[in-house]
Design goal:
The chain is an alpha/beta fold. The protein contains ten helices and 14 strands. Helix content is 33%, strand content 24%. The longest helix has 17 residues, at 134-150. The chain is globular.
C-alpha cells in the first residue's frame, strides 16, 4: 500500500517541480493531491501523464494524508502547517518560517538525515520538517564530505542566484526587461530594487542592522544548524540575470591539510555531488547546464595559497530542484527508506 501526498502551492514554480519529481522518481504514492488558494480552484496541473485539478487548501481534510509538501510562502505555512501537522500528517515546508525553530529539524538528506531518526522518536514532536534555503542546500551537499574529511573552520561564500529563486514574477521581469533593452523600450522595475536585465544586484531579501541581508544571514544560520555550529561563515548574496540555477564561489579553510586532488576524489564519491573539473576551456559547469538536473555540481577545485589548509570550489545546482522541490521529496523518501513512516491507511 502506498502513501497519500498533498502538494500545497501546486500552481507555483516549486509546486509544479514537486509534481514532476514525484512522478519522475516513482515516489510510492497511491494518491497525489494538488492544493492551492481559492483563486486557483479547479486549475489544472500536470502530474506525470495525468492532469490534477487543484483543490482549495482551506477546505481540505488531512486526516488520511501521509505527507504534505508545502511551497506556499511563510505566512501560509505559519497559519496552516501547525493545523495540518496536528492532524497527524507530516509537513515538509519550503518556506523560511520553521527553519530556525529548535523544535523543527532542518534537513538536507545527504548532510544530516540521521536527525530524522531522533526526531521521529520524540513523543511531543511537531510534525513539521523544514527545507533549507536553496543556496544553503547545494552548498552543504558539497561541504559535508569535505568537513568529514578535514574539518572546516571558516567559509567565505559569494552566491550568484538566479531570478527563479524570487518566483515567477521575477522570471517574467527578467524576460520583459531583456526584451525592452534589445528593442530600446522603457525598462520597468517592479520585483527587484534595480534593473536585473544585463545587470547584477548585490541584494537579496531585507537588509539587517549589521549590513548583511536576510539571505546572507540564512546561509550562516542554516550552515551552523545543519553542519557544525563552530564553523565561521560569511556570505555575500547576489542576484544575477539567469533564469534557473544558483552558482556559488566558495573559499574554505580547514583545520587539517587537504589537497585539491584529495578533495576532488572525496567529492566524486559523495552522495548528490558530480565533479566536472578539467583545467581547460569549458572544463567546468555553468548554471545553464545544471538547469533541470538533480546533482550538485562542483568545479574549479584548487588550493588557496593565501591561507593554511585552504581550498576554493565552484558549486552549481538547479535551485528549483535540489534547492527546493527535490530536497523536499528526498526528505519524505528518507523517512520512508529508513522505515520511520508507514502509510496511515495501512496502519
Amino acid at each position: 500500500m502506498g502513501y497519500k501526498v498533498a502538494v500545497v502551492g501546486a500552481t507555483g514554480n516549486v509546486g509544479r517541480e514537486m509534481l514532476d519529481i514525484l512522478s519522475e522518481r516513482g515516489f510510492p504514492a497511491d494518491e497525489v493531491v494538488a492544493l492551492a488558494s481559492s483563486r486557483s480552484k479547479g486549475k489544472e496541473v500536470s502530474f506525470g501523464d495525468k492532469i490534477l485539478k487543484c483543490q482549495v487548501l482551506d477546505n481540505y481534510d488531512f486526516s488520511d494524508t501521509d505527507f504534505c509538501l508545502m511551497s506556499a510562502g511563510g505566512s501560509t505555512s505559519a497559519e496552516w502547517a501547525p493545523k495540518i501537522a496536528a492532524q497527524g500528517c507530516i509537513v515538509v515546508d519550503n518556506s523560511s518560517q520553521w527553519r530556525y525553530d529548535e523544535r523543527i529539524p532542518l534537513i538536507v538528506p545527504e548532510v544530516n538525515a540521521p536527525v530524522l531518526e531522533e526526531w521521529i522518536k520524540k513523543k511531543d514532536r511537531i510534525n513539521i520538517i523544514a527545507n533549507p534555503n536553496c543556496s544553503t542546500a547545494q552548498l552543504l551537499v558539497a561541504l559535508k564530505p569535505l568537513h568529514d574529511a578535514a574539518t572546516i573552520k571558516r567559509i567565505v561564500v559569494a552566491t550568484y542566484q538566479s531570478v527563479s529563486g524570487a518566483g515567477k514574477e521575477a522570471m517574467d521581469e527578467l524576460f520583459t526587461q531583456t526584451r525592452a533593452v534589445l528593442v530600446s523600450d522603457p525598462i520597468e522595475v517592479h520585483k527587484f530594487t534595480k534593473r536585473i536585465a544585463y545587470n547584477v544586484i548585490p541584494h537579496i531579501d531585507k537588509f539587517m542592522e549589521d549590513g548583511y541581508t536576510k539571505e546572507e544571514w540564512k546561509v550562516v544560520a542554516e550552515t551552523k544548524k545543519m553542519l557544525d555550529p563552530k564553523i565561521k561563515v560569511t556570505c555575500t548574496a547576489v542576484r544575477v540575470p539567469v533564469f534557473i540555477s544558483h552558482a556559488e564561489a566558495v573559499n574554505i579553510e580547514f583545520e587539517k591539510p587537504i589537497t585539491a586532488d584529495e578533495a576532488r576524489d572525496i567529492l566524486r564519491e559523495a552522495p548528490g555531488c558530480l565533479v566536472i573539473d578539467k583545467r581547460e576551456d569549458g572544463g567546468y559547469i555553468t548554471p545553464a547546464e545544471a538547469a533541470g538536473e538533480d546533482a550538485t555540481y562542483i568545479s574549479r577545485i584548487r588550493e588557496d595559497a593565501t591561507v593554511e589548509n585552504g581550498l576554493n570550489i565552484w558549486v552549481v545546482s538547479d535551485n528549483l530542484r535540489k534547492g527546493a522541490a527535490l530536497n523536499t521529496i528526498q526528505i519524505a523518501e528518507a523517512l520512508i527508506n529508513r522505515g520511520l513512516v508507514k502509510p496511515r491507511a495501512e496502519a
